[in-house]
Amino acid sequence: MASLATSLQTSSLPQATSTPITAERESVADTHHRPDLFQSPYFFFYGMLTDPTTLAKVLKLRDRPGLRPAMIMEHGMRLWGEFPALLDGHPEKPIQGVAYEIRSQEEEDRLVEYETDMYRKKGCVIEFRDGSKVPGVTFVWNADPGLLRDSSLDLKDWLLEQRDGCGGDLLGL
């Protein structure tokens, strides 16, 4: 996905700007030097990272990660090529996926690198099948919305297509 992201980047993408370091950014930076400050958030995944094998490779885990079926409500979904992309503030229906509680700043950094600059982290409320809710983080579209196309995307169907097409082990939702 990262190579596809790199090849599709255009001049319409947001440009990095220099901003003063805020207290929030300072505390995030400190977790690299002070692992004891790291708080393990739940991340919500809705595309290829719902596949435990893919997620284990991205995070460089020896074992398959424990994923919990979950959903979020705050976003709409479009397609970027063949990949689903969440949009801010366009809720249409619940987005089904999985949640994973990351264990280190290094895992979070690997997720950010995998998602590329085309996506950015965004807070969300993750709801599990038992009705419990936790604050979490997901990745939302961070580029020109014109690169996305509408779709009557059913994430379950998309995941089945991906599994069948790549012989993967995508989690059935």
From TrEMBL:
Segments of skewed composition (Low complexity): 1-13
Record flagged with keyword Transferase: yes
Keywords: Transferase
InterPro entries listed in its UniProt record: AIG2-like, AIG2-like_dom, GGCT-like, GGCT-like_sf
Positions of region (Disordered): 1-30
Transmembrane region(s): none
A Pfam family annotated for this UniProt entry: GGACT
Tree of life domain: Eukaryota
GO molecular function, one term: transferase activity
Residue stretches making up the Gamma-glutamylcyclotransferase AIG2-like domain: 43-158
PANTHER family cross-referenced by the UniProt entry: AIG2-LIKE PROTEIN D, GAMMA-GLUTAMYLCYCLOTRANSFERASE-RELATED
Family listed: Belongs to the gamma-glutamylcyclotransferase family.
Annotated protein name in UniProt: Putative gamma-glutamylcyclotransferase
